[in-house]
Specification:
The complex is a heterodimer of chains A (about 290) and B (about 500). Chain A is an alpha/beta fold. Chain A has two domains: about 35 residues, no CATH class; about 210 residues, 3-Layer(aba) Sandwich (Rossmann fold), CATH 3.40.50.410. Chain A has ten helices and ten strands. In chain A, strands 5-4-3-6-7-10 form a six-stranded mixed beta sheet, with helices on both faces. In chain A, strands 1-2 form a two-stranded antiparallel ribbon. Chain A is globular and about 70 Å long. The relative contact order of chain A is 0.15. Chain B is an alpha+beta fold and about 500 residues long. Among the domains of chain B are: about 160 residues, von Willebrand factor, type A domain (Rossmann fold), CATH 3.40.50; about 70 residues; about 120 residues, no CATH class. In chain B, helix 2 runs antiparallel to helix 10 and helix 3 runs antiparallel to helix 4. The two termini of chain B are about 40 Å apart. The chains are: A alpha/beta (about 290), B alpha+beta (about 500).
């Protein structure tokens, strides 16, 4: 049974109502880290960094007995793992990302922002230099990877400053991104991948070739996975303005099969090139999306 | 195929609605944004062939569905298999049934008056009529009786042989005029007559286009008939002219005055025989000339077949066969007949199991050489020899009187009384039980005595009629007759199509 007190496991739309990106991401990360009992990225090295409140399940050997004796409170010691990881989170801000299939859901962009912020917070907490690039048909916002204090706030502001794109030709932007990522590290692409797969993969392969560890988070609204609408409707691509009149009932099965094939093609192609690929629906709780990365 | 409501066929134009909607559809569907349009286009491209087939199939099904419903509303009539024709429907029809119950219809063929056969056919025509039909019945008097089906059937049942002569040509001409005055889809005249050649009057009936005249074909074998055409008294003699079927054998004519036979003669149809009157005093003398009744059994063996058919028609299970050997009569049931010699006889043969039947209605009353000679079956008393001394000594034997007594009072009258029924004026039927065994016709129209039927070509030429036998007439009546309304099957088919359309629309997504 899901723990309803952990906001990382709540419906993303409900969580988003708690506040802005910052609050939501922080809450999600807290719940996520508390839930998994052990940090996914953090090790316990000899260099002490901070205390945190004891959570059931923490190993007792890291309990700070002196604080327990003095203040009768349970704290565990945390240690900084030595790392040179440089993480860059790439957020697709194209027009198609600003879409949602139902008013009760987050847009793909809103979901991507909160997920990226939560991911950045986790990375920064483990002292990894984390940066951000937002893009649509061009690179819109670049926050270089740093580990200093206030970096997370900068990243969040970077997300907030990036408007929804007017269009997308993300293939060009991806090419531009590769030149920005000089030092090898972790690259996380958060996108709905509604662009030419081959061209996008060329860019991602290049990153992989440069020694980056690449993770692709393929966001999709549930309404994009299953076609259901009025008996007849004119559907318009918000980016290209191309429209077609369809009877969703007639095409529902073929569309579902096409989407599954597309996802399978992305997954197989990414795996073939050593790229981690995760398909995420925007009604998936943030905590579960983050767990995919562990 | 005909339709009871042909105007409803205009609705067939509605069958074009699905195609027109498909071609000229100008609906503006709601518009919505949908980013993964590339997936949709791919799905559409892959499903294009299936969707095109589906659309064509749905178009055909919907068009056929509308067409079937419209056809059902038009209430089509389609030919029905013969066994199902009793319940068949037909288009609204103006029908004149001409039943020729003239004197000639009283002729007895195969044991039944011709009128029975004609009446059965007329009953079939009237019984097949519907409530929306307009009906008339014309009898030998030439009067067209309008009425409902039930009323005319009642009239038909009470109709006997009329002494009148019917001019078929005039009757058909009047009937055509009647049906033409009715604004109904069907117009028919059914002629139920023995189609005597002499019944066709001068000229032609003048059948107009759109009127169907159907005539019942005459019986295949018409008996040679003879009758007294006229009597003329002059110079102490009576000239008796005989009329009837040309070529018929001569018949004996007996002349009676004041109930006393005064002379006999022999004459064939078309000839005249003169019989001398005995001297009488002055005054009015009532006399009559009559033809002798046909002999049973006939002396002429060629007439045996006709007699046997008459017996079979009455349900008798005995028939006259070939000539038998002479021998004495053995009769246990009739006093003093035993031992009386029989010189000539026909063998009396059983049909089927009649010889084994022990019932009251099938009894061998006397035998000759162990073979039946006198039998009774189904109300028929059959003797193997003519009661003539050239055939048997019985008429000259003392046992003849007891035999006649037994025959009349016990064997025949006592068990199946013979009654005489007065027919229409000029006709007197002799019946026995339910059978008509003879008819006495007096003062007929001479043309009625010639029973020779007109050839079919002549009937077609004069009356404009198709000459059909009874089954064919039954099938052809009412615009081809034997048609049934196909609305029900069409609606069932429409339901099946609707189910198929639903299936295609639901399961081919």
């Amino acid at each position: 049974m899901a723990d309803t007190t952990r906001i990382d496991l709540l419906d993303p739309a409900d969580v988003a109502r708690l506040g802005g990106i910052e609050i939501v991401a922080a809450g999600v990360v807290e719940g996520f880290l508390a839930g998994i009992h052990r940090s996914p990225f953090r090790g316990f090295s000899v260099e002490f960094t901070e205390h945190r409140a004891y959570q059931p399940g923490d190993e007792l050997r890291y309990l700070d007995w002196r604080i327990l004796a003095r203040a009768d409170r349970l704290f565990v010691k945390q240690f900084e793992e030595e790392t040179n990881l440089r993480a860059m989170i790439l957020v697709d801000a194209s027009r198609s990302m600003a879409w949602r299939g139902a008013p009760a859901r987050l847009t793909k962009r809103a979901y991507a922002d909160r997920l990226a912020a939560a991911l950045a917070l986790i990375l920064l907490r483990q002292r990894d230099a984390t940066g951000l690039i937002t893009f649509d048909e061009a690179v819109r916002e670049v926050v270089p990877p740093r580990v200093r204090a206030g970096q997370w706030a900068r990243l969040v502001r970077g997300l907030e400053r990036t408007p929804d794109g007017a269009g997308t030709a993300a293939e060009a932007a991806l090419g531009q991104l590769t030149s920005l990522l000089v030092r090898r590290g972790l690259v996380v692409l958060v996108s709905d991948l509604l662009f030419d797969r081959e061209l996008a993969l060329t860019a991602l392969r290049y990153l992989r070739h440069r020694g980056h560890h690449v993770i692709v988070l393929h966001l999709m609204d549930p309404a994009e996975a299953e076609l259901s609408a009025a008996p007849e409707v004119r559907l318009r691509d918000p980016e290209s303005a191309v429209s077609v009149v369809v009877r969703p009932r007639e095409l529902a099965r073929a569309y579902r099969d096409t989407v599954r094939r597309e996802i399978a093609a992305w997954r197989i192609t990414c795996r073939r090139h050593g790229i981690a690929y995760h398909h995420i629906l925007t009604d998936l709780p943030f905590g579960m999306a983050l767990r995919l990365l562990t | 195929m005909t339709f009871l409501h042909p105007l409803a066929l205009l609705g067939l134009a509605a069958a074009a609605i699905p195609a027109l909607l498909h071609l000229f559809e100008r609906r503006i569907p709601p518009e919505a944004e949908f980013p993964p349009l590339r997936y949709l286009s791919e799905a559409e491209r892959q499903s294009a062939r299936r969707l095109r087939l589906r659309h064509v199939l749905l178009l055909l099904l919907r068009t056929a569905l509308i067409a079937l419903i419209v056809l059902a509303a038009a209430r089509p009539l389609v030919p029905t298999p013969v066994p199902m024709r009793r319940a068949a429907a037909h288009q609204r029809t103006a029908l004149v049934v001409i039943l020729d119950n003239s004197l000639s219809s009283g002729a007895v063929v195969d044991g039944r008056p011709v009128l029975d056969r004609l009446r059965a056919a007329a009953r079939g025509s009237l019984a097949a009529a519907g409530a929306s039909d307009r009906l008339w019945l014309v009898l030998a008097d030439g009067v067209a009786r309008a009425g409902t089906r039930d009323a005319l059937l009642a009239t038909l049942d009470s109709t006997g042989v009329s002494p009148r002569r019917l001019d078929l040509t005039a009757a058909v001409r009047d009937a055509v005029r009647l049906v033409n005055a009715e604004p109904l889809e069907g117009r028919e005249v059914h002629v139920l007559s023995d189609l005597q050649r002499t019944a066709l009057g001068p000229g032609r009936a003048g059948v107009t286009r759109g009127v169907r005249v159907l005539a019942l074909a005459p019986a295949s074998e018409v008996p040679a008939n003879r009758g007294v055409g006229s009597l003329r008294v002059s110079d102490g003699a009576v000239a008796v002219s005989i009329v009837g079927t040309p070529g018929a054998r001569p018949a004996a004519v007996t002349l009676q005055v004041r109930g006393r036979e005064v002379g006999r003669g022999l004459a064939a149809p078309g000839s005249t025989v003169s019989i001398v009157l005995p001297p009488e005093g002055p005054g009015w003398w009532v006399g009559e000339a009559a033809l002798d009744a046909d002999e049973v059994p006939p002396a002429d063996p060629t007439l045996i077949g006709q007699l046997n058919r008459a017996l079979a028609a009455r349900g008798a299970r005995w028939r006259l066969g070939s000539g038998g050997t002479p021998g004495p009569i053995v009769a246990s049931g009739v006093v003093a007949m035993d031992g009386i010699p029989v010189a000539r006889r026909y063998r009396v043969d059983a049909i089927g199991d009649a010889s084994r039947s022990k019932g009251e209605d099938s009894t061998v009353l006397a035998t000759v050489n162990g073979e039946p000679w006198l039998v009774r079956d189904a109300g028929v008393l059959l003797v193997g020899s003519r009661l003539d001394t050239a055939w048997t000594a019985l008429p000259a034997a003392p046992a003849f009187v007891p035999f006649v007594d037994a025959l009349v009072n016990r064997l025949a009258r006592g068990e199946a009384p013979v009654s005489e029924v007065e027919g229409a004026p000029g006709v007197e039927f002799r019946t026995r039980g339910g059978d008509t065994v003879g008819a006495m016709v007096s003062a007929p129209d001479p043309r009625e005595s010639d029973l020779t039927p007109a050839p079919a070509a002549l009937v077609r030429d004069v009356l404009g009629a198709d000459v059909l036998d009874a089954p064919a007439l039954g099938a052809a009546r009412f615009a081809g007759g034997g048609k049934s309304e196909a609305s029900g099957p069409l609606l069932i088919l429409a339901l099946l199509l609707a189910a198929a359309e639903l299936g295609v629309a639901t399961f081919t997504r």
